[in-house]
């Protein structure tokens, strides 16, 4: 049986991915070969930079993405990219078996 701390951490990841906007961000970043500027993510999603950045902070806090600065810009990348892509594929697969 899984300990309480691990369950809380897993719950945090599920909670972060429970937002359609955050899931779109993860999918968008997973589809690119290189890290993306947060400004570009905001433009693609047609959302305000500050709102997108707040979503990214949630994803970063639970360890799904990393953020680093390039000059005056912030860049986002997926940690464990293949694992996250597989997780999304499995979730979509679950939809088709309902």
Write the layout of secondary structure elements.
Elements: H1 4-17, H2 20-30, E1 36-37, H3 38-45, H4 49-61, E2 65-70, E3 73-78, H5 81-96
Antiparallel strand pairs: 1-3, 2-3
Helix pairs in contact: 3-4
| Percent strand | 5-15%
Which structural class best describes the helix and strand composition?
A: alpha+beta
Count the strands?
3
Largest β sheet strand count, sense and barrel closure: 3 strands, antiparallel
Mean pLDDT, to the nearest integer, reads: 91
Poorly predicted regions: none
Radius of gyration: 14 Å
- Shape annotation: globular
For the largest sheet, list the strands in their spatial order: 1-3-2
Count helical runs: 5
CATH class: Mainly Alpha
Q: Could you name the CATH topology?
A: Arc Repressor Mutant, subunit A
The helix/strand series, from N terminus to C terminus, equals: HHEHHEEH
Domain count: the total is 1
CATH architecture: Orthogonal Bundle
CATH superfamily: Winged helix-like DNA-binding domain superfamily/Winged helix DNA-binding domain
Span of the ends, CA to CA: 27 Å
Helix fraction by DSSP (H/I, runs of at least 4): 55-70%
Concise synopsis of the structure shown:
With 98 residues, the protein is of the alpha+beta class. 63% of the residues lie in helices and 14% in strands. The radius of gyration is 14 Å and the shape is globular.
